[in-house]
């Protein structure tokens, strides 16, 4: 009997093998933040050290990796549990402070509501709840609790058995996917930018997907929100609902790096610079040595994993990114992505955009990792 080509056989084996993710997160508050608010600039903030207390951040996040849901029919049906991971970020709108409302409460209520919905939904014989369902439930819960405020939000579901990530986004938080793609077959993924020669030679790591922002106008993102029961009609007119979510699915591969973040990252760090940071992180951890993807494939086929590094390193990458975002946000000599977009909208803004920043990194791997 004829055998399929080697490359096709490898691809079919990969499709029948579950994937997993190692996840890490990091966050920093607005550098000028205090318990009573935010200074408008560095001069007003004064000589005090930049803020590091994450409790001051108006961002919120969650990661849920257990218990894993079972296959159709639930436990005892002869199917292995499927590797699901959920994660989300939310960015509370800081201008609520002007009205005596703590902006942290609504973003936290959304993320806590997602976790609450997961606890209720992960029962035997149940399918995994999708991101749009979690956000719809969380929004309703926040309204029922009477939490006043507003927030952007992005939630993803990693389905390791299907090799897919499903996500729902409202506003200007988002998710990007980085992947090694051979330059000769990059096609539409090849960005029309000139990279440094050594970078072009050194890696074929590319940004393969970027979620789209949802904006009413410049710096006015779509938001979930609530003005209180007495202002229910105004809430309906002012804010968005789960019906307005941008929802999509992405096919993922082993070795992909997923980065979900609030706008504190994307406003200050260009996606090409994010790619460079991820490339350096891969090199530091020796996930890809000398851009030799063939060697990585041989290691995978031999069942050799780097779980001892992979389990802890996503948190390191998340920290690198939030620290870079803060550094760039404080510069006034280089225009950030926020500044460039502002000028496209006839708003004179130079340098960075100080803000809270939260990053979740998910590294797609072939074996479950036990963190030490």
From TrEMBL:
GO terms for molecular function: metal ion binding; protein serine/threonine phosphatase activity. Pfam families: PP2C. Gene3D superfamilies: PPM-type phosphatase domain. Belongs to the PP2C family. It comes from the Eukaryota. Its EC number is 3.1.3.16. It comes from Triparma retinervis. PROSITE patterns: PPM_2. PANTHER family: PROTEIN PHOSPHATASE 2C (PTHR12320), PROTEIN PHOSPHATASE PTC7 HOMOLOG (PTHR12320:SF1). Keywords: Hydrolase, Magnesium, Manganese, Metal-binding, Protein phosphatase. Residues 44-364 form the PPM-type phosphatase domain. It catalyses: O-phospho-L-seryl-[protein] + H2O = L-seryl-[protein] + phosphate; O-phospho-L-threonyl-[protein] + H2O = L-threonyl-[protein] + phosphate. Its cofactor is Mn(2+); Mg(2+). This is Protein phosphatase.
